Amino acid sequence: MKKHNIVLWICFIILLAFRLVVKGDNSPYWLGLALITLALSIFLLIKNGLPSRKYVIISVIFAVLSMVAYFGYQQNPFILIYGLRAGIPTLLSSFAVFSVMQKHKDYKLLSRQTRMSPLISILIAILSGAILSVINILISRQQVNFQFSLLKLLICFNPAIYEEMACRAIFMAFCVYCVSVESKPQNNNADAATGDSKKMNLFDIITMYFMMIVPHTVIHGYDLTPTLMLCVLFGLPFALLQTKRDITSAMISHGIVDAVRFTLLGI
Fold this sequence. Notes:
Helices cover 76% and strands 0% of the residues. It is mainly α. The radius of gyration is 18 Å and the shape is globular.
């Protein structure tokens, strides 16, 4: 088993133990995942450095939006202090994710293969978000009570950005970087010169998807069956959007799901 896989599985075991031992409010679980996120982000930044200025600016915007979103819960400027719990992990994870992305090009913030690619990503995000929203409402078994407000839409920036970057994309970036580094001695000189990396083996892929899906779902504090359902119905689609399309499509889709939920079922 490769070293990076061992590290990730140990992180998950620690998080799961924390989840099982600490009772009550699920805030401590989120803190546990945030600490793992920060550790992985710092490691990647030490190894890769900061991304380009463009992506530094995007990272700062993401961090600010993930914090400002808390105004949707409480219209009090001091809520931004609480929002640092999302803002700091979002900032550092975004730096790390974009730094690895620029060097290894195994995933994208927004697909630009053709002129229509960005539009296609948005359409895919809207379609997947609509389908997942219907599923979310149906499995909630709650009475629909339509209450639209801009504040509820503002809240959606937090899960759409923070959870997709700091709870999901960071694991993808870590796996992509480590597989590339660990495979370098096996590449020929031409591959090493161009920065090409060996493809992930089956266990690498399983580990990456597991970490992109399960930890984020586990920390919501649900019992086993609901947790497994959420992994399959929501975690897997968002992870596939990130890896097979781009990070933006996952963010938009996630934001739509929460916007519909907050509007029809409340916060």
